[in-house]
Design goal:
This protein is of the alpha+beta class. The protein folds into 2 domains: 17-31 and 44-121, Immunoglobulin-like; 123-248, no CATH class. It is 17% helix and 33% strand. A 4-stranded antiparallel β-sheet has the order 4-3-6-7, with no helix packed on it. The protein has a 3-stranded antiparallel β-sheet with strand order 1-2-5. It has a 3-stranded parallel β-sheet with strand order 9-8-10. A hairpin with a 2-residue loop joins strand 6 (106-111) and strand 7. The chain is globular. The relative contact order is 0.15.
Length: 248
Amino acid sequence: MRRLILLLVLLAPALRADDLTVTYISRLPELDYVWASTNPTRDGWPADGQQIVWRANVKNFSPAAVTAGYRWTLDGNTIASGTQTFAANATTAVDLPSTWSFERHRLVFELANNRLEVFTDALSVGFWVEQSVYDFFRAHQPDLGVGSTCWENWAQRLVGFYNDMAAMADVADRWRIEKIVVVPDGALPLAPPVVPRRGRDPSAAATQPDVRDRTVDLTWGFPATTVGSYGDTRTATLANPTRVSLAP
C-alpha cells in the first residue's frame, strides 16, 4: 500500500505556485439592487436568516487537472474543509452553504498557497476586463516579485487597498468582488450606456461596462486601450498602477 501511495504521488502533476488562484468569492443567490430604494440597507440584500451560498471561484491555469485541499474560516475559526479536483484551464466553484446575517464577519477561503478574505456584509463589485488587458497581466504580474500571477490578483489587491483606506478614514462600507467577466477586445460597453443629456460618452467602456447588470453595487470596465498605461511591470510601489491603481 505504501508503494502504491508513493507511486501516485510521483505520478501526480507538481503544483506550481501559479497554477491555482482564488479569483473571487461570490454570494448566491444574486439579487438586483433596488433603484431609488427608500431602505437601501435591506432592499437588494438577502433576508435575515435566509439560506445563502458563498462560492469560492478557483481558476486552474495548469494544462492538467489539479487536486488540492481547501479550508473555509470565519473570524479565524475553521468552519469547513475538504479536497477538490480543479479542471485544467478552467474555473471550479467550491461552495459553502450558509445563513445570511447583516453582521460583519471575516470569511476566508484558503487553498494551497492561496488565501482570499472578504467581509461578509461588503458592497459588491463587478469588473469587466477585455482580453488584452487580462492576458497582459497574466504575462507580466510575476515581474513584480510580490507573489502576484494574474489580473485577478491585481484586482483583489486593488479592492483590498480601498478597504484599507476606508478603515483608516472610519468609513463603514467595505467592498467585495462579486464577479469578474472577461470579454473580447472592443466589446465594452456591452449595452448602450445611460448618459443623460451628454450624448455619446467615450469613457462608457470603463464607467458603464454593462448597464443591464444590477446584481452588483459598483461596476468598472477595463478596455484594451488602457494596456499602455501599465508599462512598468517591475516596480512594486503604490505609485505603479501595475501593482495597484488608485484610479482604475
